[in-house]
Amino acid sequence: MKHTLHQIFHSGKFVLGFCIFIVILLIVMVYPVLFPYPPLAIIGQGTFFAPGIYVNAYDSVHAPKYTLNLEDAAAKRIASRLSEDDRVAMQEWLVGYGIPQGEIDINDTAQLLGLWNTHYDPKAQIPGLTNAKRNYYIRLDTALEGLLATEDAVIAVKNPETGALEAQGTIAQSDYVNVGQVANVRFLPLGTDNFGRDILTQLVAATRVSLQIGFVAGIIATLIGLTLGLLAGYIGGLVDDVIMFITNLFTVIPSFVLLILISFSIGQERRGAVTVAIVIGFTSWVWTTRAVRAQVVSLRNRDHVNLSKLSGHSIVHIILNDILPYIASYVVMALILQISSGILSEAGLSILGLGPRTTEVPTLGLMMNWAMIYQAYVLGKWWAYLPVLITIALITFSMNLMNTGLDQVFNPALRD
């Protein structure tokens, strides 16, 4: 056993896959302890907040102010509200209004805004201007208000008696606050999804649930395949014929199609994570059965097996003590592949809307389903789907690396 483990952990592919998988497991276990946020809690009133650090604006007003004179502060402030695309769009409107293009310098912010403020009219009839474009210009005009202002922003509160606004303080353009001194700050490294939920917290919880589904499905499929393969391969005869007949029936029907039909018949309300895992396991045992049977057929007439027969040992004793140890490494590799296959099957089902209930726990497939339904890809919200794809790829890649490494250790034909 010690020599076998030594060989396994000297396989570069197995070690790399094992390390990737252990890192994923550690993140899944440690993150909820450090950040015990509910994965499906709606924290944002809006859709697809971009990744970043979110500082409470109300608290930042009352935080200690620090004066920093930064040279590029004004340029960055203007660029954040007036992009290059906005400048080109303003030029197009002005040209359509009748201003000669040669008189418009989109790089001169003051001149461009001067022309815009002088001539822009939301009711003007510009040739080829669509309603969507007209609304865009209205929003842009509102955003440009006070862009070049140098005055301080005034903080005012309403007088409860007169109803008039009374100045309580000012905020200069050179005033800064220390994020560490603001009471409410939330770091969203992956932003939020279409429902306003923290994607990172959701991704960690979804990875945990998908791994659980994969392990349950993989164990069930491997146990069924191992049991039927051992019986068919060793006993043979009528038992072998019956088992292989059933196996061939399941082989003819694509397992994923069968999985879809069973999941659909169960119904949304009864499809929990465990139920989906069991269904996947009961539809994924076929290739394990055929492979185990082939291994057992090659072992059942070996000398040590014949000697055990002559000694009067029972079939169960022979299978468990004289055959199973010789195919144990193959069973472990089959289990790894079944776990990986189970995770991918759940993802495929959930994308089709046939995965676990959406109101209980997230899964990687459900996150992909939500991103697809709410057009995250079309809208360019990469943080809603790309981390999920990378996570699925890393899990399956690590497991396939471990399987390849084990195959190189236990298969003499592949040894260096």
pLDDT < 50 runs, ≥5 residues:
none
User: What percent of residues are in strands?
Assistant: 5-15%
Task: Give the helix tally.
Answer: 17
Which structural class should the secondary elements be placed in? mainly alpha
The second-level CATH architecture of the largest domain is Orthogonal Bundle
Indicate the radius of gyration in whole angstroms.
32 Å
Termini gap = 21 Å
Topology as H/E string? HHEHEHHHHEEEEHHHHHHHHHH
As for the number of domains, it is 2
Give your account of this protein's structure.
The chain has 416 residues and is mainly α. It folds into two domains: 2-44 and 194-414, Orthogonal Bundle (MetI-like fold), CATH 1.10.3720; 83-143, no CATH class. Helices cover 62% and strands 6% of the residues. The chain is built from 17 helices and six strands. The protein has helices at 2-8, 12-34, 57-62, 73-81, 84-97, 109-119, 131-143, 199-235, 237-252, 255-266, 273-282, 286-299, 303-310, 315-351, 364-373, 376-379, 386-410, and strands spanning 52-55, 66-67, 153-158, 165-171, 175-176, 185-188. The strands form three sheets. The chain has a two-stranded antiparallel sheet. Strands 2-5 form a two-stranded antiparallel sheet. A two-stranded antiparallel ribbon has the order 3-4. Helix 15 (364-373) packs antiparallel against helix 17 (386-410). It starts with a helix and ends in a 6-residue tail after the last helix. The model has no long low-confidence stretch (mean pLDDT 88).
